[in-house]
């Protein structure tokens, strides 16, 4: 990974030198060994601090949104899942492709700094042997970048070994009552911090439905009803748009299985409107299923 | 000294549970936090009195994330307050670490002093007894001593317990503490106990002078750099034992409804949005700055103590790796803009 790190640094420095970019979004080392944190470099000197290591898990694509109203040229490093997130943002017309210079990285699988720091501080129990990859990386179907200007690192095989939608299939086996109880119990724990929304590349709406006050669509009480409403609405906004980067579930402070809902929708969108896999390739003007509208639609209800 | 043997802990908890709801640090499934002893599942859950901190602080006990305040009925042109929901049922927080205890004292300052008394808070708080668990071995993320706390002899506890291996020492500090002691006196023994030696802190944090220096740093350039990777997600404020910001909202169905209070966070755009649509903290960086100024400067100015208690939770939970200790360092090192 040292190699990848050096290459990213070199390319970023050159881009700055040649004035091809104004900022570069990458990672730098944080205060602790296992903390590799998002970093916005603004000069060739800054770019020397860039690193890529086994903790570069943070999806940088959402950082792009901080620049969506500007005209800066932006360099960005992107693993497989990050690159699908960039496609999401391009399809959602948050950026012109010309503003981006993407360094794609074939991703060898990441560890989760949130798990590591939790164990280090004694607030979380050790899971696995400590060398384990982040949970989301074991389900990764696309470790290689799908859109890039430069490519570093080697081609990586898909790391998914088991069945793709195992968790979803198990949930589908429950009867309606069991399922209701499962979701009521699980979602009651949600503390409604909205971190799952903030880290989501598909959540790029300027005004989110949950922040609207007039009318207020979803109540702010921390109750099973309001919590379920939050998750129902959030999940349905992900249909056809979730790129499976897994960041929502990873950052959730109370372990809500957000990807269970997202994967159910991925499966259903693929079955009923597919074949479709979100964010896999960027075609200018292409629209994901459920994002287009036709008067000739045979269904009389959306 | 009075001693509670660990073998008698569960019976003592059962006893306390008869007259009050007892909240303890527990691991429940994958979560850790303060939960009611009533919800403890033998064999599945784990008591976490020996862990330094649990993920979710006991804040929820003193300031519930959602609390009904009063219900409303509309009759013709009249609006009537139907019922108020002040809650004075007795509760015990058992095993709060000194940092979490101090956080509750900070909330007491906010809700009970300077000429404002929040009756909902007051009612609940007066019925809460706090058993604090002294810390002899600070964890890697802890820095309470730098934030004006004595982890061995925390101020404001009703009872202080110290873990001495097989047993806890038990020392009542207030009349409430005495009353609690009386309830379980049959399980307490009188004997001497050697307490562990206090270990040094892993992190060296120097808060002195930070509040004063921040007065001149509102427009300093460091905020941009420190905060630009922050998601404004609010995790840090929701896991923080002392962040107390709230919103008051209403739910109505036809002629009936109720008002409730719920946690809110200065990290959210909507929190500082004004009725006319303006927002004094419209950008994420401004909201990020507010959090640290409130913790490290404003609260100290108003109440004489910082609002950060050094528990380290935000350091552990922040997805962007933002670290308040590093921010304190950076403030100390920063050059003041001319
Ligand atoms: S699911 Fe998790 S991250 Fe999302 S709002 Fe709830 S607690 Fe926060
Ligand atoms: S939850 Fe829905 S409305 Fe809110 S940001 Fe995400 S997609 Fe947009
Ligand atoms: S910060 Fe201090 S009081 Fe809190 S757990 Fe650590 S040592 Fe104990
Ligand atoms: S500091 Fe971290 S936890 Fe707090 S809002 Fe920013 S990203 Fe979220
Ligand atoms: S600001 Fe962070 S370290 Fe300080 S009390 Fe809050 S959660 Fe703990």
Would you kindly provide a written description of the structure presented here, covering whatever features stand out?
The complex is a heterodimer of chains A (302) and B (338). Chain A has helices at 2-17, 44-47, 80-91, 113-120, 135-138, 166-173, 176-188, 195-198, 224-238, 247-251, 258-273; strands at residues 23-29, 36-41, 74-78, 100-105, 150-152. Chain A is an alpha/beta fold and 302 residues long. Chain A folds into two domains: 2-152, no CATH class; 166-287, no CATH class. In chain A, helix 7 (176-188) crosses helix 9 (224-238) and helix 9 crosses helix 11. The radius of gyration of chain A is 20 Å and the shape is globular. Chain B has 338 residues and is α+β, with helices and mostly antiparallel strands. Chain B has one domain. Chain B has eleven helices and 13 strands. In chain B, strands 1, 2, 3, 4, 7, 8, 9, 10 and 11 form a nine-stranded mixed sheet that branches. Chain B has a four-stranded antiparallel sheet with strand order 6-5-13-12, with no helix packed on it. The longest helix of chain B has 20 residues, at 284-303. Chain B starts with a strand and ends in a 5-residue tail after the last helix. In chain B, 42% of the residues are buried. The model of chain B has no long low-confidence stretch (mean pLDDT 91). The chains are: A alpha/beta (302), B alpha+beta (338). Chains A and B meet through strand 2, helix 4, helix 8 and helix 10 of A and helix 8, strand 12, strand 13 and helix 10 of B. Bound molecules: iron/sulfur cluster (SF4) (5 copies). Residues 52-53, 97-99, 135, 138-139, 142, 144, 151, 310-311 of chain B line the site of one iron/sulfur cluster.
């Amino acid at each position: 990974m040292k190699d990848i790190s050096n290459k990213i640094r070199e390319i970023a420095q050159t881009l700055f030198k040649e004035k091809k970019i104004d900022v570069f979004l990458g990672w730098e080392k944080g205060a602790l060994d296992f903390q590799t944190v998002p970093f916005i470099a603004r000069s060739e000197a800054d770019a020397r601090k860039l690193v890529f290591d086994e903790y570069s898990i943070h999806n940088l694509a959402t950082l792009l949104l901080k620049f969506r109203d500007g005209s800066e040229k932006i360099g960005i490093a992107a693993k497989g899942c990050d690159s699908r997130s960039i496609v999401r943002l391009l399809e959602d017309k948050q950026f012109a492709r010309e503003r981006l210079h993407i360094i794609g990285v074939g991703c060898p699988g990441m560890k989760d700094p949130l798990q590591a720091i939790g164990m280090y501080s004694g607030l979380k129990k050790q899971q696995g042997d400590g060398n384990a990859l982040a949970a989301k990386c074991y389900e990764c179907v696309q470790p290689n970048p799908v859109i890039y200007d430069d490519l570093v690192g080697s081609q990586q095989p898909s790391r998914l070994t088991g069945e793709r939608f195992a968790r979803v299939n198990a949930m589908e086996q429950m009867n309606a009552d069991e399922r209701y109880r499962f979701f009521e119990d699980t979602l009651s724990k949600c503390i409604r911090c909205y971190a799952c929304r903030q880290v989501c590349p598909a959540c790029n709406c300027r005004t989110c439905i949950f922040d609207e006050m007039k009318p207020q669509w979803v109540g702010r009480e921390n109750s099973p009803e309001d919590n379920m409403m939050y998750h129902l609405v959030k999940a349905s906004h992900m249909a056809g748009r979730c790129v499976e980067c897994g960041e929502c579930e990873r950052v959730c402070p109370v372990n809500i299985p957000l990807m269970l809902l997202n994967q159910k929708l991925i499966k259903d969108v693929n079955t009923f409107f597919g074949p479709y896999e979100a964010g896999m390739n960027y075609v200018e003007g292409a629209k994901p299923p459920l994002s287009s509208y036709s008067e000739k639609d045979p269904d009389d209800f959306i | 000294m009075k001693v509670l043997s660990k073998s008698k802990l569960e019976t003592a908890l059962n006893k306390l549970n008869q007259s009050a709801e007892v909240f303890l640090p527990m691991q429940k499934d994958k979560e850790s936090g303060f939960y009611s002893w009533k919800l403890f599942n033998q064999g599945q859950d784990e008591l976490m009195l020996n862990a330094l901190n649990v993920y979710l602080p006991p804040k929820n006990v003193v300031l519930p994330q959602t609390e009904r305040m009063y219900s409303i009925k509309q009759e013709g042109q009249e609006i009537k307050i139907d019922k108020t929901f002040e809650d004075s049922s007795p509760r015990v927080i058992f095993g709060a670490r000194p940092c979490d205890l101090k956080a509750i004292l900070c909330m007491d300052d906010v809700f009970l002093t300077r000429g404002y008394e929040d009756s909902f808070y007051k009612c609940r708080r007066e019925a809460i007894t706090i058993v604090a668990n002294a810390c002899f071995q600070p964890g890697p993320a802890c820095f309470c001593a730098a934030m004006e706390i004595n982890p061995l002899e925390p101020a404001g506890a009703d009872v202080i317990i110290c873990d001495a291996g097989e047993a806890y020492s038990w020392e009542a500090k207030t009349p409430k503490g005495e009353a609690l002691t009386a309830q379980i006196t049959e399980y307490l023994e009188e004997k001497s106990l050697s307490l562990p030696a206090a270990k040094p802190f892993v992190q060296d944090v120097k808060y002195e002078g930070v509040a004063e220096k921040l007065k001149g740093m509102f427009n300093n350039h460091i905020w941009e750099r420190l905060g630009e990777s922050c998601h404004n997600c609010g995790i840090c404020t929701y896991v923080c034992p002392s962040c107390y910001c709230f919103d008051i909202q209403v739910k109505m169905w036809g002629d009936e409804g109720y008002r409730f209070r719920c946690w809110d966070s200065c990290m959210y755009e909507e929190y500082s949005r004004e009725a006319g649509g303006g927002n004094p903290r419209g950008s994420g960086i401004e909201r990020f700055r507010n959090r640290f100024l409130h913790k490290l400067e404003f609260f100290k100015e108003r109440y004489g103590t910082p609002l950060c208690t050094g528990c380290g939770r935000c350091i552990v939970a922040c997805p962007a790796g933002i670290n308040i200790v590093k921010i304190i360092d950076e403030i100390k090192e920063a050059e003041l803009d001319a």
